[in-house]
Design brief:
The structure holds 2 protein chains of 2 kinds. Chain A is of the alpha/beta class. Chain A has helices spanning 16-24, 50-62, 80-93, 103-112, 129-139, 152-161, 186-189, 193-196, 264-270, 284-303, 312-320; strands at 8-12, 29-32, 66-71, 97-100, 118-120, 143-145, 165-173, 205-210, 213-218, 221-226, 242-244, 247-249, 257-259, 274-277, 327-328. Chain A has 2 domains: 8-174 and 256-333, Alpha-Beta Barrel (TIM Barrel); 186-249, no CATH class. In chain A, the strands form 3 sheets. In chain A, strands 1-2-3-4-5-6-7-14 form an 8-stranded parallel barrel, surrounded by 6 helices. Chain A has a 3-stranded antiparallel β-sheet with strand order 8-9-10, with no helix packed on it. In chain A, strands 11-12 form a two-stranded antiparallel ribbon. In chain A, helix 1 packs parallel to helix 10 (284-303). Chain A is globular and about 60 Å long. The two termini of chain A are 22 Å apart. Chain B has one domain (10-134): 2-Layer Sandwich (Nonspecific Lipid-transfer Protein, Chain A), CATH 3.30.1050. Chain B has a 5-stranded mixed β-sheet. Chain B is of the alpha+beta class. Chain B has helices at residues 13-19, 24-43, 45-48, 93-100, 106-111, 121-132, 138-141, and strands at residues 55-60, 65-72, 75-79, 87-91, 116-119. Chain B is built from 7 helices and 5 strands. Classes of the chains: A alpha/beta, B alpha+beta. Chain A binds chain B through residues 14-18, 20-21, 24, 43-46, 52, 201-203, 205-209, 214, 226, 228-233, 281-286, 289, 316-317, 319-324, and chain B through 2-5, 50, 90, 102-108, 110-113, 116-118, 120-122, 124-130, 132-136, 143.
């Protein structure tokens, strides 16, 4: 692909106030989901009904911004119409693209809504340019979102050979990064992100302040106990602490957040089309702060990439909003290929 | 503003000494009246409907006092102290105020152990998301 002149900022919107906040603070695009299991942030009270989505699309378009709809879970047996109805609704609303993972839904989209722009979701787990070009060939996708497992050198390799735009994650909570294939939470709850659109269904989560600390259980399984002063994390199985051979520690993954602000000049040079901010489950206050900082950083970087320097104030504010004790560059900084 | 940029404001101990001895029920009645007047108009009755019959407690840690409500059709009912509730939110007064005015992000306060949701997490999350979905007047958020 040719090198884009700019990097788009793609921000999360779990609610209409979050969407408007993202637009007001400089998001080029917002992404949202509907109120059911057709998206991977299926939480009670979160997301958009048709009326709120229509207002959001109107608000964004009136200001020259775009709206993407995440339909990034996998259609379940006997319920395909739930996913196709959601896709029809997105098309009727006049959204600018849908973010899909399920090839069956892509086929439906291509046949019924040939003018609708398709993005390949991170849930599609396409980590190679061959996999991405497969989706280009069969479904004419216009953008692929890369899973958060590639090093910077690998991202560059993919950008140079993929026949479509590439979007990468810039900021937000990290997980074990087997997007689209993770069934860990199903081990305790029987439900997972790909089937019902949520890692830890809220009804299975219990927090309890005990004399020994704050205990968190997932379907009655103790997954962590926070001592006074410990930072808490999202109540997912992958971020729990477990006893392994007499040692209690984050046996699967330590809660951390991705922050790639310092990589912006590199991403711009490589020709990455867009940077995505994680967090549709977060409040408008989070969306406001993160969008404002990333807008300022991207503008500064596009103006003079060689002179771009990350400001301490940006990093401090982003760290204060993050899950876990630290922010990391994730896989991007890994030397291996 | 990042939470780290503010020294955490905590009510002085003498306030706690007074408020913890005050009868909580009148506060719950006053709170319920205010919520009943304001919430259905701002939130919309439809948004409250899925939460009807659910009860919650707001525990203000630094005041050592709490108020409890039940969501009824179009209004909030005050509950007597000690009543069983579905979910309890605990935080300091200043953090509750910052949440109410959208100056703080609840997940951030939760990571920092400044906000706790105990009991029925699903009801708590639904209530939180419902409040996030409300378009607050700008004079309240300072936006």
């Amino acid at each position: 692909m040719t090198v884009p002149k700019r990097i788009e900022l793609v921000c999360p919107a779990g609610t209409l106030p979050a969407l408007k906040t993202a637009i007001d603070h400089g998001a080029d695009c917002v992404y949202l989901g509907f109120r059911n299991e057709t998206n991977a942030r299926n939480f009670g009270g979160l997301n958009f009904d048709a009326k709120a989505a229509a207002e959001g699309v109107g608000y964004a378009h009136a200001r020259g911004r775009r709206v993407l709809v995440a339909l990034n879970t996998y259609a379940q047996p006997g319920a395909f119409e739930r996913w196709t109805r959601a896709l029809d609704l997105a098309a009727d609303l006049g959204v600018d693209a849908v973010i899909l993972a399920d090839p069956g839904l892509m086929r439906y989209a291509v046949e019924r809504h040939p003018d609708l722009r398709l993005h390949l979701s991170v849930q599609g787990s396409a980590t190679t340019y061959e996999a991405i070009n497969f989706y280009v060939r069969h479904f004419a996708i216009k953008r692929a979102v890369l899973p958060r497992v590639l090093s910077l050198a690998q991202v560059e390799h993919v950008v140079g050979r993929a026949q479509t735009e590439i979007e990468v994650f810039g900021f937000g909570s990290l997980c074990v990064m087997v997007e689209g294939r993770c069934a860990l939470s199903s081990y305790t709850t029987g439900e997972g992100p790909n089937t019902v659109g949520v890692c830890s269904p809220a009804r299975a989560v219990r927090w309890q302040d005990t004399g020994d600390g704050l205990e968190v259980r997932l379907n009655d399984v103790l997954i962590d106990r926070y001592a006074t002063g410990d930072k808490a994390g999202y109540p997912t199985l992958c971020k729990g602490r477990y006893v392994v051979r007499d040692d209690t520690y984050y046996a699967i993954e330590e809660p951390t957040s991705l922050n790639t602000l310092e990589l912006l000049p590199e991403l711009l040079r490589m020709g990455v089309a867009a940077v995505k901010i994680e967090g549709r489950q977060r409040s408008p206050a989070y969306v406001a702060a993160v969008t404002r900082i990333w807008r300022a950083a991207i503008d500064a970087c596009m103006q003079a990439p060689s002179r771009f320097a990350v400001r301490d104030a940006w990093m401090g504010e982003l760290a204060s909003l993050s899950e876990g004790r630290q922010t990391t560059l994730g896989a991007y900084h890994r030397p291996w290929r | 503003m990042p939470p780290a940029a503010h020294p955490a404001f905590v009510l002085p101990p003498f306030v706690r000494a007074v408020t913890s001895r005050l009868p909580a029920f009148p506060a719950a009645v006053a709170g319920a009246l205010t919520l009943s007047l304001v919430a259905p108009r701002i939130v919309g009755r439809d948004a409250l409907a899925p939460l009807e019959g659910r009860s919650f407690r707001i525990f203000v840690r630094d005041a050592a006092t709490s108020v409890a409500f039940r969501i009824a059709p179009g209004r909030f009912e005050p509950l007597r102290p000690g009543c069983e509730v579905d979910v309890t939110f605990s935080a300091n007064a200043a953090d509750f105020l910052r949440l109410a005015t959208r100056r703080a992000d609840p997940d951030t306060l939760f990571f920092d152990r400044r906000l706790l949701i105990e009991g029925d997490t699903e009801t708590g999350l639904q209530l939180k998301n419902m409040l996030d979905a409300v378009e607050l007047p700008r004079w309240l958020t300072g936006a």
